[in-house]
Amino acid sequence: MESIAIITGASSGVGREFVHQLDHHAGGPLDQLWLIARSKDALERVAAGCTTKTRILPLDLTDPSSFEALKKEISDACADEKTYVQWLINSAGFGRAGKFVEIGEASNAGMVRLNCLAVVELCSLVLPYMRSGSRIINLASMAGTLPLEGFAVYSASKSFVLNFSHALDAELAATGIHVTAVCPKWMKTGFLDHAGSKQSLKKMMFIGFENPTDVVRKTIRSAVLGRGVCVPSFDMKIAYGALAILPVGFVMAAMRFIGDWTTEHLS
Ligand SMILES: NC(=O)c1ccc[n+]([C@@H]2O[C@H](COP(=O)([O-])OP(=O)(O)OC[C@H]3O[C@@H](n4cnc5c(N)ncnc54)[C@H](OP(=O)(O)O)[C@@H]3O)[C@@H](O)[C@H]2O)c1
Predict the structure, then answer these.
(1) Torsion of CA 83, 62, 184, 45, to 10 degrees
(2) Residue 111 in contact with ligand 1 by CB distance below 6 A
(3) Per-chain mean pLDDT for the chain
(4) Which domains does the chain have, with CATH numbers?
């Protein structure tokens, strides 16, 4: 049998770290790594550092024709029924901070296309080629656990990822395939460089940062164990539990107050 890991967002940040750790067999033996992002050059650089057989697929996952191309690649590769997809890692994503009306239609719609629609498309395409023991990891975020002013579409898109992953994992229970949604806090990756309004971002920085290497290591472990959600940091585990019982209006007001206070007093 020949196993494949498909990783989106593989050119940078969290996706690139998944490539690195899977290449070092953190998720068990693997025969092929398929790397997806738009930048061919960046994918080539990541592939050059891998010891596993690697394919690069420079695709824009907001373009519907990319899924047609990918469907053909996967069905051709798995046609012998000896090749299957062991891992699907949906890491490609972006977030724009700022007021909804100021972010603009293209970016708001783009976030939904990449963060939500592409995840659904990829799960649909890949699931027929998975088998018992295969794993899907979807990058959600702590931002998906509550409505976030100044990040309205992004937080809603990650809430979609979280709920979709949970429900899909339950639907797949009898197959031995598991879906894990991961909820990191901030990480210093390309994400922050492309997130737009520094003022809106600053108000949410008080929740703190974590390291992509730790996030990926803990997420792979959770996925291997078949857990539906991975909240990698200890403080956010507590916040995740608290958010399930606190009234949403109260949490939003507290976030606004802490964000305004820290921006004013700690910068
Ligand atoms: N960093 C954080 O603070 C943070 C926190 C929580 C959750 N997350 C989530 O973690 C995931 C990974 O983010 P990151 O931190 O690794 O950010 P990143 O360093 O900016 O990486 C984003 C990746 O997505 C790819 N990408 C962007 N647009 C694409 C498109 N249209 N089609 C295909 N690929 C595309 C980028 O490559 P190209 O530009 O070459 O296409 C890049 O490889 C995202 O889903 C993000 O929402 C991030």
Answers:
(1) 60
(2) no
(3) 95
(4) 2-265 (3.40.50.720)
